[in-house]
Amino acid sequence: MARSERGMPMSYSWGASRGSAHVSGLALDRAVAGPRPVDGPAVAPEPDGPVLEQQRVAAELAPMVEVWQRLLAQHVPDRAGRCRTCTKGGTGLPTTPWPCVIHGIADMARRSYDAERSRVAS
């Protein structure tokens, strides 16, 4: 595993450091709230994490048609079933399977764009 200047493990995945932060070499964990009784019907908490972040990025990317089209064209599988772009030397992780996160976000953007176009057309 790669290490930072301070010897801390580095992560290459989205949202990997969401649960804690490092300040001056000290790990600070985010407090987790326990269940509380609620008056009335239960309200589901808003989803959080990497999937929500990917959905946010896809929503921003949806109107940028040329960008997500280019991402979809570049992030395709090789013969071994890995992403061609993400596994290129020096650009990512050599074992990234396809579909990679970038392809997934671009595909979400495409579907969002298509849904909006069909909604406006009807």
Question: Which helices and strands appear, and what pairs or packs with what?
Answer:
Elements: E1 20-23, E2 26-29, H1 50-61, H2 65-74, H3 101-121
Morphology call: elongated
> Oligomeric status of the shown chains?
single chain
Q: Would you identify the regions where 5 or more consecutive residues have pLDDT less than 50?
A: 10-34
State Rg.
Answer: 19 Å
Beginning-to-end CA distance, first to last residue? 52 Å
Q: Provide the succession of SSEs.
A: EEHHH
Strand content: 5-15%
Provide mean pLDDT, rounded.
Answer: 75
What does it look like?
This protein is mainly alpha-helical. The protein has helices at residues 50-61, 65-74, 101-121; strands at residues 20-23, 26-29. It has a domain at 50-121. 35% of the residues lie in helices and 7% in strands. The relative contact order is 0.12. The model is unreliable at 10-34 (pLDDT under 50).
